[in-house]
Specification:
heterodimer, A: alpha+beta, 5-stranded antiparallel beta sheet, 20% helix, B: mainly alpha, 20 helices
Chain lengths: 225, 393
């Protein structure tokens, strides 16, 4: 004899209440109220890092060290914004498609000389693009593991475009297909130290002949000049 | 006075006060396990403080659950090297209990949480007895695995496995008793403990279907009359309540109701084909690292997933489809994001442990080999666990 079931109004009332609550939660799922950086990194997965909340403070002209306990330089971790891991004995290491530093300082109204020490975790030749405030200002050519001392002149127009803030972005290439975590494998750029100094105040030895490394100004910086 | 009458009265009194072995056994094994591991800890570290021992056991996610109990959910993600992690990934129910114990007793989160975990596991073991259908040897092995097995750490420090196993066992016992509403309420608590708790909704439906067939009903009739099964409807509807309340809380806290899913990016988890993930983890040490001499953590996680899937197949073969579907998807759901922590996820699925115990205790010789092997592994793996080995995680 197959069993006979009788519906209960109380059960249906319970289901209705849960359904109303469920609909509310469903609406919340469909309508996140989050910041753009959160949406880009966690929901759309279009960015490869989630920005840190930093002051960006940088005393212009001072060497900036990314090695804790180093013997000289400004050490506070105030400029590492996105795509760089914390400071370590080998400096800061990039992850994802790019690493970005944000520096805040009063605009000196002239060209700046950007210098830094860097190396990568690859024995093959690799290129890393350097952008300042969205403009490409140079390309680093790594032949392998040897250190590359970057020396790039940042035009005053590019500095002015940041309105008191400078975003230095290092675009690193992808070196492998995504693994089981869905994240692409990228070249790891390591920065040990960095310095920005007004060109007029740069010691003569710092300029050398390396200015040739800087590419011609991009269309945007030409417009500004 | 008639002696026989006196004796029978005494016997009756003894019977009344006798505590069944299936209740005493988990208590004894839990105490033995705690003392044994403490002794090993003292022997290897020369530290006598019991709280030092509890602190040493509390590694990886244990710290996250402890902090969650202490401080609640965090704000903007900033954890890990990449600065993208926080504790939104951790479901709340376990930490709520630990927080409540702290408030009521004044014990620290670590001590109160460790006691809560041990007692919850004891309770889970006792509740599971009806699921063994009188097979005491298998029950003994199950309890020994929980309290003296190579992964007993999950069941003695601040991890959700104990609570989840308790709720899973309670849910399946209630389904066995055909109390679907209580099972649904248990499912709601399960989904507030771990995301895989949602799968209990499928287990309720399957159990009801199988019970319907056992009662002489037909498959077609079940689906034709399911709209009358309002108890079943309510039971299934109750299961997602736990996760929904958590999602609603996260919407108010972070603005993202699915923050517990999205934050998984910090752990490198993204939804993909689980079988591709499994294959990738099985071959990575050979194809990428050319390692043919040891078992990497990837391979170990892959083996754990295979064991979980295989035991789910055994459940299906034995006709326990509610257990089988719950366990299979309990393995495939985390496997679809990554294989990391697979050992822990498999060990946290009660039917897998029960069926494993039933299999390993089927022959006496196997039972007598397994028991000391587990005990030895428990002793030797303690320093591995406290040393934060990825294998065990």
């Amino acid at each position: 004899m197959p069993p006979i079931y009788r519906p209960s109004l109380w059960h249906l009332l319970g289901v209705a209440l849960i359904a109303i609550f469920g609909a509310g939660v469903f609406w919340m799922v469909l309508n996140p109220r989050v910041s753009e950086d959160y949406r880009a990194y966690y929901i759309a997965r279009t960015s490869s890092c989630f920005p840190r909340l930093i002051s960006g403070y940088y005393p212009l002209g001072e060497p900036l060290s990314f090695v804790p306990g180093s013997h000289n330089g400004y050490e506070l971790d105030t400029t590492r914004w996105c795509g760089f891991k914390p400071t370590s004995s080998t400096g800061i290491r990039s992850f994802g498609d790019y690493g970005v530093l944000k520096l805040k300082f009063p605009d000196p109204g002239e060209d700046l000389l950007l210098t830094f020490t860097s190396w990568v975790n690859s024995d093959k030749p690799r290129q890393v693009e350097v952008l300042v405030n969205g403009d490409r200002v140079g390309t680093l050519n790594f032949t392998g593991y040897p250190r590359v001392n970057g020396k790039i002149i940042v035009p005053a127009t590019v500095v002015a475009a940041g309105k008191g803030e400078m975003e230095i972005r290092f675009n690193v290439p992808r070196t492998g297909p995504p693994g089981t975590n869905g994240e692409p494998v990228n070249l790891e750029l390591r920065l040990e130290s960095l310095r920005l100094v007004p060109l007029s105040e740069a010691p003569p030895g710092m300029l050398g002949t390396k200015k040739a490394e800087s590419p011609p100004p991009s269309p945007r910086s030409r417009r500004g000049s | 006075m008639d002696d026989s009458v006196v004796e029978s009265k005494a016997a009756a009194r003894r019977w009344t006060w006798r505590i069944p072995a299936y209740i005493l056994l988990p208590f004894y094994l839990m105490l033995i396990g705690v003392l044994l591991r403490y002794a090993v800890y003292v022997r290897t570290t020369n530290h006598w403080a019991f709280t030092d021992y509890l602190r040493a056991l509390c590694v990886y996610d244990c710290n996250a659950y402890e902090r969650l109990s202490l401080n609640g959910y965090e704000g903007r993600p900033s954890g890990f090297d990449k600065g993208d992690a926080n504790n939104w990934a951790f479901f709340p129910l376990y930490s709520i209990f630990v927080w409540a114990i702290n408030r009521i007793t004044g014990l620290s989160m670590l001590v109160g949480g460790s006691i809560f975990t041990c007692l919850t596991t004891v309770w889970a073991a006792i509740l599971s007895w009806p699921l063994f259908e009188g097979r005491f040897r298998a029950y003994f092995l199950f309890c020994a695995f929980l309290f003296l097995g190579p992964l007993s750490y999950y069941f003695s420090t601040l991890y959700t496995e104990s609570l989840f196993i308790l709720l899973t066992v309670a849910g399946f016992v209630l389904l066995k008793q055909r109390d679907y509403l209580a099972a649904g309420a248990t499912g709601a608590l399960m989904s507030a403990t771990r995301s895989t708790g949602l799968l209990f909704a499928a287990a309720i439906l399957i159990a009801a279907f199988q019970n319907h067939l056992r009662d002489g009903g037909g498959a077609r009739q079940f689906f034709r009359t399911i709209w009358r099964r309002t108890d079943l409807l309510l039971a299934v509807a109750m299961v997602p309540i736990g996760i929904s309340v958590f999602a609603a809380y996260l919407w108010f806290r972070s603005g993202d109701a699915l923050a517990f899913v999205h934050i998984q990016r910090a752990w490198g988890r993204v939804f993909q084909d689980p079988f591709s993930n499994l294959w990738a983890t099985l071959v990575v040490q050979f194809q990428t690292y050319h390692n043919y001499s040891s078992i990497s953590t990837d391979l170990a996680f892959g083996f754990a997933a295979i064991a979980g899937i295989a035991l789910s197949a055994v459940m299906a073969w034995k006709g326990r489809w509610d257990w089988a579907i719950f366990s299979l998807f309990g393995v495939l759901l985390p496997l679809s994001t990554n294989t990391y922590s697979m050992i822990r996820f498999v060990v946290g699925i009660a039917p897998i442990l029960i069926v494993g115990s039933l299999l390993l205790s089927r022959w006496k010789w196997l039972f007598y080999i397994t028991l000391p092997a587990m005990l030895i592994a428990d002793v030797f793996l303690l320093p591995v666990w406290t040393g934060r080995s990825y294998y065990m995680m």
